[in-house]
Amino acid sequence: MLLAERKFMKELDGMILNASESQLKKFQELDLITQLEGSNFYDVFSKHGKKSVLNVPSIKKKNRK
Questions:
Q1: What integer pLDDT is reported at residue 49 of this predicted model?
Q2: For residues 28 and 43, what is the distance between their CA atoms, to the nearest angstrom?
Q3: Mean of the pLDDT values across residues 46-62?
Q4: pLDDT reported for residue 17
Q5: What sign has the CA pseudo-torsion 36, 40, 42, 45?
Q6: What is the C-alpha separation between 32 and 30, in angstroms, rounded?
Q7: Nearest Cα to Cα of residue 53 among 65, 45, 41, 42
Q8: Using CA of residue 4, residue 38, residue 18, residue 25, what is the dihedral sign?
Q9: What is the mean pLDDT of the chain?
Q10: Percent of the chain whose predicted confidence (pLDDT) is above 70
Q11: Long-range contacts of 47-55 (CB under 8 A, 24+ apart)
């Protein structure tokens, strides 16, 4: 792992540890989405940037018929 990747992960971990309750909810939603898609949380976050990721729309439950 590159030094830049380690720094990014440490910065993101710090953001999560110091996040407000509403921000934590957004992080949790993003984590769930990435798990369902089989993608990496850190990769998705690095591609979309801090502001856009924290504006992820809430997950809506699909109606099952």
A1: 66
A2: 15
A3: 59
A4: 92
A5: negative
A6: 5
A7: 45
A8: positive
A9: 78
A10: 74
A11: 50/15, 53/26, 54/23, 54/26, 54/27, 55/26
| DSSP assignment of 12-61 | HHHHHHT--HHHHHHHHHHHHHHHHHT--HHHHHHHH-HHHHTTPPPP-P
Residues in the chain: 65
Closest by CA position to 30, among listed 20, 19, 44: 44
Q: What is the pLDDT of residue 57?
A: 53
CA distance 12 to 32: 17
Say how far apart CA 33 and CA 30 lie, in whole Å: 5
Q: What are the pLDDT digits (tens) for 10-26? A: 988 898 899 899 889 98
pLDDT at position 64 over 50: no
